[in-house]
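Give me structure tokens for this 260-residue protein.
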Amino acid sequence: MSQAWSAPLAAVGRTALSTLAGFGRFGEFGASVARSFRDTSTWLRLVALQMARLGVESLPIALFIAAFTGIVLALQASYTFTGAVPLYFVGTLVGKTMILELGPVLTGLALAGRVGANIAAELGTMKVTEQVDALETLAYDPVAYLVVPRLIAGVVMFPVVVAFADAVGIVSGWITAINMLDMSTAEFVRGLRLFFLPFDVHYSLIKAASFGLAVTAMGCYFGFTTAGGAEAVGRSTTRAVVVSSMLILVLDAFWAATLL
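Here you go.
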């Protein structure tokens, strides 16, 4: 009986210790990143390249998702409001929902898959093939060279991508409304302006910046701590996507509770 009870408890203990060790490793990684920010001569010239890779190249998938999200919002709003709420409230729902929630969150989740996986796979491959050690041999700080530019690019470019996604989502909702819902542009704009606040945009961009930090930080951390071969790179990539997606949802709830 004692052995039957001790096995589950031992498993829980191992899991708890592994989790605490993971937090410790991440704290050590974060400290090394903070120290590497001082090495501006290494990371500054690489930021523009990472901004293009993480932001500009991510625009197509973000805009594709936003366009169809706006279409669905307009159609579902029309279905929900039928006979009960004036139809111009379609503009209100599309605008508020895209800016406050679906624009940043869906874009963040999509980029967690694209950006987070790309970073983890790239850095993980460099780690297992000893390219990171080669940078140290050449007197480069690997964290300043590989991590810091990606973090800065994520924080800067995620709000830019989300801003475009919000705009495209609203425009696609407007096109859907005037072509499929028998609404005029004036009615849609009336609903769009009805409860609009400039703070809504600020809120959306704050969320997007935090999502960018979470996605790039997890991608860099799991990639940089990869140990093993190709299988380890796959595990690191999967973990980066899963953990960054979870962090996006946690941050979404945090900012809603804090700022709204």
